[in-house]
Description:
This protein is α+β, with helices and mostly antiparallel strands.
Amino acid sequence: MSFSIYPSSEFDLLSQYEFLNSNHLRYKHLDWVPEKQRLIEPFAFTLLKNNEITGMLSCAAESDQAAWLRYFICRRNIDYAEVFNTLIKTAVTSLINARIPHLYALGLPEWFSRLLINQQFTIKHQIISLHLDPSNQIKNLKTNIIDDTTFNIRTMTHDDLISVFQIDQRAFETQWQLGLINLKACFRASKISLVLTWQNEVLAYLMSEQYFDIQHISRLAVDPAFHGKGIANCLLNTFINETLNNGVSQISVNTNDDNTPGLALYQSLGFVKSDERIPVYALSVLQ
């Protein structure tokens, strides 16, 4: 099968918007930045057959160390594996030229996992979901933040985003860090967002989205310099009380299944692990 491939930013955007909105085979990353915006970013490619859009793929970078596979969209009733293989090879070549060493992807649905495995991706992590029902809440407010001082928990504002971004970069491993654009998009999508401050300095933040009557914790981080002082516990307790008082029926959160401190914290507050796992695949691009 003969294909033509173009950087999406260099091809007609209106025809690509129409393709995005059509009923095609689709993988979509858990991304706060919309697909239409990804089209004009680097590492997005559009594949044509007979001058007709057949597939699209984005591997937008989150930093100079890590990129994520954001979407793969392909016409139905076609060899989607060949389309994917062609697009991913083009994207990987582009990442190599940019010296971005790692590419990650979520392994759902199953057909998409098979595509990743065939391109030498391997499982790096497993994401686990936890849920808190009001009847299971355990009040476990412990803190030892800083002796003889006070801290404050308040609603996050746009002015906090630079401080939040800096905490995010320090708190997470490279593959889990959010770039500023994605962090701002996450903030815009949030229903309840909180920061914990001490002497007017942001030490921790939490962002969450609401899906019907479920409140999902999108992002939670504490400045590593203040780990071990009960800050995450305080922030979570405040968030849980505010959320449940607003009539939400359940709170959910995702984390790595090897995040022992995080799992212990959530479970101490009454969160229960689900059986579902989402594999996270990785490809070392520069090997």
